[in-house]
Amino acid sequence: VHRRNSLEEIVSFYPPVKTLTEKGKEVLEYENKYWLMLDEKETKRVYPVKEVRVEEMKWRKWADDWLVHLISPNVYRTPKEALESFDYIVREGKFGTLEGLFAKYVGAAAMFFISKRLKKRHHLRDDVREDLYEAVNEWVKAVGKHRLFMGGNQPNLADLAVYGVLRVMEGLEAFDDMMVHTKIQPWYERMEEVIQKTGV
C-alpha cells in the first residue's frame, strides 16, 4: 500500500507568495502552479500514479480559470450584498471613520457595477448563485464519496486551491447560501480541520 506524502512535503515544492484579495484578505498564491519542478525520480515518488498528478493539475487549473471568477459576481451580486461585503472589509481592515465610510459606499458601488461586467464577460447566468452552486457541486462530485479529499486521506494542491478560493467568501451571504444549497460543507469542514492542524 502506497503511503501518501505529507501535505507539508508536497506544498514545499510550491514556494508561497502572500497576496491581498480585492476584499483585503491576505491569501497565499503558489509559484510553480501547474507542474512540479522535480526530476523524474522525485516526480515518481511524490506522484507515483500519473493519473493522480493529471487530476490534481486539471482541478487546480479549473479553480483558477473558472471557480475564482464566480466570487466577485456573487459577493457583489446586489447593492445590499456589495454594502455588506465592504462593511466586512472595513470592520476587518484598519480604516478610520471617514476612510471606512468612503471605502464602504464608494467601493461597494464600484464593485457592484464591476461585478455586472464580470458576469457578462464570463457568460454567467442571471442568478450567479446557480453558477456557484453548480461549480462547487461539480467539485464535490469529482472528489467522490469514497475519499475524504481529492488527495485521498489528506488534501492535495487541488484541494488547497479550491479551499483558498471559497474561503474568500467566508462571513458573507454568498458563503452562507453556498453552505445551505450545495453539498460542499462536509469537505470544507474537513479542510478547515486539516489546515488548523498543519498550519499550512
TrEMBL record:
MF annotations from Gene Ontology: prostaglandin-E synthase activity
Superkingdom of the organism of origin: Eukaryota
Domain GST C-terminal, residue spans: 88-200
InterPro entries, sorted: Glutathione-S-Trfase_C-like, Glutathione-S-Trfase_C_sf, PGES2_C
GO cellular component, one term: mitochondrion
UniProt xrefs under PANTHER family: MICROSOMAL PROSTAGLANDIN E SYNTHASE-2 (PTHR12782), PROSTAGLANDIN E SYNTHASE 2 (PTHR12782:SF5)
Name of the molecule in the record: PGES2 synthase
Gene that encodes the chain: Ptges2
